[in-house]
Amino acid sequence: MRTEDVLAAVATGLWRWDNASGTVSLDGEAARLLGLPAEPVVLPEVAVRSRFHPVDWNEINGIVNLAVAEGTLAEARLRIMDVDGRVMRTVRSRSKPLERWSADGSLDYELIGTIQEIAEPQPGTTAVHTPITGDWRRSREAFLLDAGRALAEARSTAEVLRVAASLSMPGFNPDGLAVFGVAGDRLSVIGHHGHDAGDEGPFTDMTLDTDYPAAEVVRTGRAIYLPTPDDYKRRFPATWPLAQRFDRVSWAFLPLIVAGRTMGAWMAAFKQPASFSPDERSVLTTVARMLAQALQRAGVAESERELTTGLQRSMMPQLGPEIPGMRIAARYVPTGGGLQVGGDWYDMIPLPSGRFALVIGDVQGHDVRAAGLMGQLRIAVRAYASEGHRPDAVLSRASRFLAGLCAPEGAGAEDDSDARSPRFATCLYVECDPKTGTLEVARAGHPDPAVRMADGTVLMRPTAGGLPLGIVPDTDYPTTRFTLEPGETLMLCTDGLIETGGHDLDTGWARLRAVLEGGTREAGTHDAGAHEAGAHDAGDLEALADLLVQAVHGPSSHHTTGPLADRREDDIAVVLLCREGGGCGCGTPVAHPARPARRTMLTVAQAEPERIAGARRQVRELLHDWADEEQLDAVVLMVSEMVTNVLVHTDGDALLVAEAVGELGERRLRVEVADSSDELPHKRHPGEMASSGRGVLLMEMLADAWGVDPRGEGKSIWFELYEQSKQPDA
Questions:
Q1: What is the rounded average pLDDT of the residues 508-517?
Q2: Per residue, what are the HEC states of 203-219?
Q3: Tell me, what's the pLDDT at 685?
Q4: What is the pLDDT of residue 582?
């Protein structure tokens, strides 16, 4: 008995589907199950396709492609339709896709399998019902929802075109897509799918009066459906030879309309005949509308990105030529909202004296006006600095300039109130002498700079400052002078680097300090090898700048939010200046360098007694890894007493200088407090209730050595303390 007879006895048919030739071979039983005469037959693919429910036909293509990719059997439930569109029966198809190479070298496949009728459970029975795909209308709705979501998520024209090319429409699938755009009176292809490279050549540039379906669609705003090649040849004989070579048999050209304006056309071409029924036309029209909206959104987004990039490139300066003995790195990160522009900026300005200036600032606001004011203010600051003015004079003139830009006088009632509303800006101006490392700093309401010392210790460098620019036109800005030693790195930043991620000033600085220190403050890791590795990693300025931005905007920042989790994000600008030297990592390596000295300097003015707390904090940061906490408390107490005595008993300011030298665990600390008074301190014996007179007694009790050095004008009181490593408990 033949195998075909056995299968026919159990109502199972055989079929062979040759995808390369587009034919399907059926035995008698398979033909009967498909509603055809029960005899072996070879039919074109389109004839067999007409017997299946359109939704099931759409699904079986995906199932076969998956089976080809995975090398498994393809199994599907298929509903067989009669000529009136009614479901005759449901069959199960099981087949094996076999890959075949055609004569032209392309890969295709042949499907060999069985078809068997399955009984559908009747209502009220307990038979298990295997769900199948819903009807055409339900499938269409699901398809449109998925297509709308995918197109809405596309952020560029290229992404929109990729999504459009991947759409699998229910019941009929175009194998060729093209999107035409309009520029003036010209029509061109802006994207296509299902064609070879170069096929778009004849369509890349044509006038709107061309006898071509897409051009007519753009002219009239009405869709054109061409179900057969004869329809195409009859309506558009001039361009039919261009379309004929693609071997398509049906075409749909639909207008892409947004807000009543036709912005282009969309072509869907089919290798299988498409009748373009009302349902099919409805799907194509809806997809065209969604595609037009997606392309419009993508175009606006790309225009905004282009505008943003242009603004950033024009407003963010180059750091200029290399400076012997120094390295500079800078970063700018927009807030990400709106046009992604804001008021943060930085600049490097060569000065007539041979020095250079570093400027960093932040104009109030996160909008286009803030960016415009920033550009004007940056140019003004550069002009004042190039004239040779000192740092304080540069900021004073810049404040007057910004106040004039935002002055409300002269604005008419019809003027935009925001265009003339007052704005202020913070700014930090640093004039640097590359030969000596001397820095002169003027600050207008901006965060203080930070200094990373050669051994990795990071200190906030308190500087004198004034009001932000633009608040009071005539404002004085005191200057602070200090020296950037070889191997040290100066960091200037806007508040966005500190506070982004819900951080305040304290927690934000703690986060940045950990990055700047480069791992040298790990507990119990104070050996020379760890020091050298940490110094080298953080000394590379470009890598360090990237690490700072990554700590604020990188993936880890989402898990380390600060106490103000709902704080608004801000622009970020950061500038790093390194003076090359041993241990900095950006100059010539030094073999076995000695541990560099740590040094800090601070002035406490008579009018600013509150800065005594800053002096105490500065000393604690300088000695963050001091071995004995009790000694550190003693140092802080003596510093506080010495600075307070200067403010109370003299008429001048106090200059604090602290320096720690030597290897960890064996360092010597020397602290000097200088003032302009010639009166020398003397030992007193205060009573139990006395509020003063204990300064000299404290130094005798707590310091290893102390003294007073008279100077030409004034004196310097100093003490020294030797680090005592804690002995392990017995």
A1: 86
A2: HCCEECCCCCHHHHHHH
A3: 65
A4: 60
Alpha-helical segments (H) within 319-415? 368-386, 391-405
> What is the distance between the alpha carbons of residues 342 and 360, in angstroms, rounded to a whole number?
14
The first and second tokens of residue 689, run together, are 């209730």
Interhelix angle 368-386/391-405, rounded to 10 degrees, is 140
Per the CB < 8 A criterion, the answer to whether 439 and 490 are in contact is yes
Count CA atoms closer than 13 A to 41's CA, side-chain side: 17
Q: Two tokens at 301?
A: 């987004």
Backbone phi, then psi, for 119, in 5-degree steps? Answer: -85, 130
3-state secondary structure at position 248: coil
Give the residue from 108, 132, 116, 118 showing the smallest Cα distance to 17.
Answer: 108
Q: What is the pLDDT of residue 126?
A: 40
CA pair distance 131, 128, nearest whole angstrom: 9
**In a 10 Å sphere around its CB, with 0-12 CB exposed, 13-18 middle and 19+ buried, how is residue 371 labelled?**
buried
Interatomic CA distance for residues 512 and 452, integer angstroms:
11
Please write the tens of the pLDDT for every residue from 118-165: 765 444 444 333 333 344 555 667 777 878 888 888 878 888 878 877
How does residue 439 score in pLDDT terms, banded at 50, 70 and 90? very high
Full-prediction pTM beyond 0.85? no
Name the DSSP letter for residue 107: E
The token pair at 518 is: 């480069």
Tokens read off for 153 = 């998520």
Q: Which phi and psi (to 5°) does residue 94 adopt?
A: -125, 125
Contact between 469 and 420 (Cβ < 8 Å): no
> Going by DSSP bridges, is the β-strand pair 598-604/261-270 parallel, antiparallel, or unpaired?
unpaired
Q: Is the pLDDT of residue 453 over 80?
A: yes
Measuring CA to CA, how many Å separate 8 from each of 14, 39, 389, 518? 9, 12, 102, 79
Band of residue 538 on the pLDDT scale cut at 50, 70, 90: very low
| Contact between 177 and 258 (Cβ < 8 Å) | no
Would you say 444 and 364 are in contact if contact means Cβ atoms under 8 Å apart? no
- pLDDT value of position 581: 73
**H helices present in 673-729, as ranges:** 695-702
Angle at 485 between CA 653 and CA 515, to 5 degrees: 100
